[in-house]
Amino acid sequence: MGRAVRFRGVKATPKTLEKDLLTKASKLASNPSLLIPKCEQHCRRCGYDKLLKKMEKVAQYKDDAETLQDLATRGDQLVRAYAATISLAASGKIPFLSSKKTPEGGDVSFAVRGKVDAEYLIGVQHFDDPDLRLLAYFQDAQQSDLHIYSSPEGLYCSSDGAQAPLDYSKEMLATAPYELKADNSCGHPEAVIGLMIDWRSAKINIFICQECADEVNLLHHLLSRIAAREPWDDFDIDVRYSPRCVADCGACRMKEKFTMSKGLKESYDKGQVSDVMLLSRYTQEREAHLQKSGGELYISGDECFGHNKEAFLARLKGNEAELIALSGVVRNKPMPIISVNDQAGRIIADLWPQYKEELLAQVASPDIVKSILASPGNLTPPQLVFEARRQELSRSIISRLPDYALKGPIGMMADDLARSFKTEGKSAMVRMLDRNRPRETRSKAVAYGFLVAVGEAESHNWQYTKEEIDFGRYLGDFVQTLLGAEGNDYDQALHNLLTACGANEDLKRK
Fold it and tell me: Do residues 90 and 67 lie in contact, with contact meaning Cβ atoms separated by under 8 Å?
């Protein structure tokens, strides 16, 4: 497949670059075979042999810049590019250069002479660059169905299908975007899931596990210096997914034949999908295939539990809300679940598009579920499950506490702090205190009493006077009783706290 370059303009030639181009032009004038790929099959009829003979005839005029520029206007593009390039040495100067953007994104400078396609001029004038030189051979490779390889050692050509030279395969493995070990793996050849690349002609098998996979395309790197109609035709791409069996299932569904979709493979072949994305999309495709075929299958990380959902659930990690929500759905709906780890939150996120209502229903009442789904905000699915559970617990707890028609400032503060502790826990209560720190001595003593009751007083001593601390320690027992009370006992405990702190406030229930 050809690689287009885009025009970037004309500029004066820097002296160092002019000297470099003239030196290379002189080398080509003396030895045009530098542009001829080495034959891997020793073909009886080689098109490049004919081109070499034409270049040798052109080289006879290596000191005649005018004739060379005329020869650069007709005939084969590679021969034209050769004539144009050695004309630079004949003229002895290059006043101006053109600049174009290469497929890899960088700008490259070259001299325009004759009527030659830019790709050929760049490839010939930079014949010592393994990447740029290949631009002069893409069109020939496609038209003549060749495989042309470019390595620091030179060019190689195969006319009978892919035949990767040893120099080329060594170079591409050494410069791969992964630090490959002696077995051509990332160092984790026994990993459960990973990318497998079989480089047939090179007799090389590469494995990159999911943990090591990066936002790169390893295949695109391996074939980046191959000119061919389909440079990927020498590579077999697959994904290995073989979790360890921890259940006795009889017939194992993971051993069923599965092939990634044609669209996914083509996207990867053409460099449109990274290694990470390939593994992710493969897993999604396989899970969709299992779901379509029905039945139960539970996989967590590197372990497959078959249809043993209870063993699968017992191995999961997460907060109480996540585990309740996920367990309820899994027990009620037979399904295949394939998760890269044992985190319940990750599985909830995967199931959310299809099962969000069922997941929320495990931890909250219908009206709370409806409210959560109507205004999700920026919360993630696991956070939404947690929020639904929090609201449900809050409603349950609040329903067991008295409702007041009248409260004074200290009574209101104490009641708010107690309710926060009961519905959201100690951390939420302390945060409320930090956001609404009282200023009056009696109120501060009550606040300190709450810190004493939950074991957080010492870290806040600097915010209180000695008098407030001593008074607060006395009130700590009253607060402790309040935090553990419900119903009428809660009302009595709040009255006792107000009496103990000397607050002359009204406190009336509805």
Answer: no
